[in-house]
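FYI - complex with coproporphyrinogen I, inputs then prediction.
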Amino acid sequence: MPNKLLLRALAGETLPTPPIWLMRQAGRYLPEYRATRAQAGDFLSLCYNPELAAEVTLQPIRRFGFDAAILFADILLVPQALGLDLWFVTGEGPRLSTVTGPDDLARLRGPDDIHDRLAPVYETVRRLTESLPREVALIGFAGAPWTVATYMIAGRGTPDQGPAHALKSTDRATFDALMERITLATIEYLSAQVEAGAECVKLFDSWAGSLEGDDFETYAVAPAARIVAALKARHPGLPVIAFPRGADSRYVGLHERIGAECMAIDNGVSARWAAEHVQPGGCVQGNLAPTHMVTGGAALVEETRAIVEAFSRGPHVFNLGHGITPDADPDNVHRLIEAVRG
Ligand code: 1CP
């Protein structure tokens, strides 16, 4: 049995107190993050600077004593490594050159050609293995193919993933070839993170919820299952967290279909429902609404205790249902941890 709490929960152990970490725990709500980001120049320079990326990964560990650290990087580094231009517009978010037809696809690099661009990320992982406290687990991550494809097709974040859905129905060959390229690159990317020292990996499928009918199986479940199977073949025993955000009732049975030890649950479903219908499949992670980190107060404590109680009869990793937002109050994170560890 592993001795780090996060790895024990992922291995299926029901613990008296769930391990806790937060999505986007390194981020703009922390003054020390804003200072390091200013030192790096911009967000992407921070991602590709192993010393500073390791530093911002460690900041929330130092301040809050979380049970896990998540590599500081971004899901959009893979599109950039595949050859797309990527930049961030202040106050608006990411922009990318797009893939909208066979010619764009032909210009992309192969899945094995991503490592020179991504080498600084692997170096960040190596540094973290040396500097993290012994009891803190290191999580590597990547975007799931559908979510990454939505950005590569639209060239930006979209409320309804409209451009990706449109390409899927008008040029299925290009869409499928793009999904295939991302899937293979993701296997290589995560595998390299594990070789550098990541102890488990998380697949972020932030836009899985917009896949309807058979598309959910074809473009969310199947690619995730393929990535997990390939990773486990190369790294036996590697624990995986899957986050098909917005899966709603389709969370039921997903542990087995994806082959992941842990299902990260967003706050669109109730903890009671998930404890009854999803947790029998394995470890669950979640699922406090991120707004509590802004509003705090008695509701934060009550809701946190209710989630801990709901999931207390099986393996659970405490987290938010989505990333902590820039307007969150760090003091509320202290209150949250106190409510969880009580
Ligand atoms: O200005 C800043 O400093 C940038 C804000 C920021 C941060 C802190 C971005 C831009 N990315 C990140 C880091 C990040 N992104 C991590 C690091 C580790 C941690 O959690 O502490 C992780 C895991 C991600 C993952 C990520 N990036 C996702 C999946 C999770 C999710 O939130 O749904 C997505 C969709 C992205 C794309 C992205 N990167 C950044 C932004 C603002 C966005 C969303 C763009 C959009 O859809 O509009």
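Strands lie at 68-70, 86-89, 93-96, 137-143, 200-205, 240-244, 262-264, 283-288, 316-320. Residues 288 and 320 are 4 Å apart (CA to CA).
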